[in-house]
What does this fold into?
Amino acid sequence: MTTYTAGSLVSARGRDLVVLPESAEDMLVLRPLGGADDDIAAVFPAFEDVRGAEFQPPSPDDLGDSQAAGLLRSALRIGFRSGAGPFRSLAGIAVEPRAYQLVPLMMALRQRVVRLLISDDVGIGKTVEAGLIASELLAQGSARRLAVLCSPALAEQWQEELRTKFGMDAELVLASTVSKLERGLELGQSLFDKYPNVIVSTDFIKSTRHRDDFVKHCPDLVIVDEAHTCVAAEENTSTQNQLRYELLQKVAADEERNLLLVTATPHSGKESAFRALLGLLKPELARVQLDSDAGRRLLAGHFVQRKRADVRQFLTTEDGLTDNNLREDKKFPADRYFKDETYKLSPAYRSLLEDSIAYASERVSAAGDRGKREARIAWWSAIALLRSLVSSPRAAAQTLRTRSATAAAATAEEVDRLGAPLTRDSGDTDALEGLDVAPGAETEDAGARLAELAERAAELEGPEEDKKLATLIKHLKTLLADGYHPIVFCRYIPTAEYVADRLEGKLGRKTVVRAVTGTLSPQQRLQRIEELADLAGEEPAARRVLVATDCLSEGVNLQHHFDAVVHYDLAWNPTRHDQREGRVDRFGQKRDTVKVITLYGSDNGIDGKVLEVLIKKHRQIRKDLGISVSVPDESSSGVTNAVVEWLLMRNEKPEQASLFDIETISEMTGKLEADWKSAAEREKASRSRFAQRTIRPEEVAKEVLAIRDTLGRADEVREFTRQALASLEAVLGKDDEGFTADLSGTPVGLRDAVAPVVGGDAVESGRPVPFRATSAVARGEAALVRTDPVVGAIAGYVLNAALDDQTEGPRPARRCGVIRTRAVDVRTTLLLVRYRFHLTLPSRAGERQLVAEDARLVAFQGAPAKAVWLSPEDALELADLAADENTDREFAIRTMGRVLDALDETKSYLENYGDELAADLLESHRDARRAAAEIVRGVNVVAQRPADILGAYVYLPVSGGAA
It folds into this structure.
């Protein structure tokens, strides 16, 4: 029986395949040339016909035009799923990473066990950075299973990101799904063993009932999203935070487990919280002196934190590079345009507010004589009443009719624990779920009076009496007329529902309005948003308005559908405003400026002070530093408490209120500004002190060049797809997000290949198939990325048609060509060469033997026997040349035949060039893993011989030149 070595070519099942290292004497493990792992098959030579194969040279009479070389090269590279470079996964993912997003990946590969805190600013792409690391560790075998811990509201978004961008299928482990998943388990089996990749609700898994099973069967790679909610660094830390922290401590206790912590706010001005996070990565980081050189060096290997200004332009001469050839300009909105719009209460609304304040003042005053518990109940009920009144008539009515949750508390401490989350907007709130319900204000003996106030509130609905709503309608009409699609953020569910109801029919016939609140599950919220986008459609005149509570203010990406934010209700913590605005002000936002309108009441006694002291100050700090700095909770609540106290006092003791306003509120404001300034200075110092310096820009530039040489760029995929479809007789149309293609006239082989993806009806009926410049596409659409199945089918068809000259119908790429051009003075030959490399890659899980492929263009002047070889850059330029003059076909065949007959003379050069590529790859692999000495020593790369010449293209001077 013939023995085949790894990397050699065999012919079986009617095609040429590569022998993989997993093969044995009686069983061959084979992969098609350029194929993915999903295409691998086992063949038994004893039962099937397997023969050694040699790649056949091109035929001189199978000539193509000037585009043939470029199309064939692109088709080959798009088909690669097993890149030879140190980043194994990049060939198989559907996202082209920005250069700066490679930095965390390069940091991770330099650790034997990956422990990393990724704290890039909001909207930079932390999910992609974490996904790149996970994809790479799984591809290399350094990790076998993955768990993502996140909020249940973000679970489906993580699932979609992993599936569409990284080709990873992950099961959702949520309170709503776990029963169904467990029904499919065998006796004694854990679902974390059955499903290799899972996305787990942190809130579900943190309880002791589920935690122990997860920890026992925890995957060897864990990503923790919004990790700042999982630290317990102070005595007053919430119980939920404490449970999450205990869970992560147990997960991190296994020193061999890879752990990625992801958060845009690693400390929020609190050193203890920052240290707690670092301690999860490496215990000594919780104690080391970070001001020392040794401490900073230790931290630098585990922490990356960059703001937008750091990556807006990357790989430029300002980064120390010699030129700007690799410069990347990150598409962020340039700024936020803020506009504060005021309104005044109608007489009826003002009367209701004054009567409600009088009632609340009486209650607080009377409760003070009855004990601390009663005083705290009255206090929180007063705040609930005031906040709901300035929110909307409907929220006010519901609050007035609802019993206060604090009334059931047994102690003053329990009253505070129940009252604070529902009435304040703490920056430390560990979850926004359930916090958008309207709080209650009713207590045992106040039913009749509150019922009367509730009836008056209900009568104020509508723009005639509710001037806040009338102001909103006016400004929404302006935004919509300017082409914007706004989100209106409200504090309470009744307000959001009321606003959505009242906007219906007021904003134009083609404007669609929908509300998303905490009454919907996280999955239903995303569905509602997509339904809104679909209903509004893409017509230029169509507009969409989303009314939402803060259940959407964190984690959910809304930049693709919306581009303006209206704060209908002022949050009492400006961090919440920043979170709301960050849903649309992020990478992928098409608008250069995101509009932000803040509504506030000039005469309700609350809004004006909150806006002046909290919101505007926060904006200024963000503008000065380029980042958001969280307001210290105690200081901000001191201000808002003082404002409420002043309002209540103004009714009971008007003579004291003026003095209180000057002294107490000013004192609280001064303390807030001092604390805030201190937090801002700490944040500024931290950003400077812990700036990412582990990976130098020139190191990133080197890897970016290598990736582009091997896999190409996204614009190459777009241009290839357009050219190939046009050559295959598709009818192309224009589209704002890419282009469309009627595939009904393309060859039947291509139609059969794409029909399962876009639908047979679309292919045969001639309905245009949209090709989008994004990886997230709906069914029936194609993404212009190299791993999209439609793009892959087009590339496969072009490649197979080029290799098989018996293919019927159009063949866009050919393996030969003779082109006359003014760009050359002597005969120049361009070769498209496929190299195969045998890689030995050690990892913590053991040594892996791999076969990878690469395609290169090489070129020489003159005859093959006396070739003058050109640089890779010159060879690449030849592929883009157009013909300046027609070439006689018979002359072209004779010329091509002479060149092909002499190509054996190039064998030595091609083999040496393959060895050079192997040496470069070896250096890249070693450099990427240089921190893990035992892994570096075992890495090896060998070029398989002979290389395959896929195409040969001769460029001749125009008539009269030397040939």
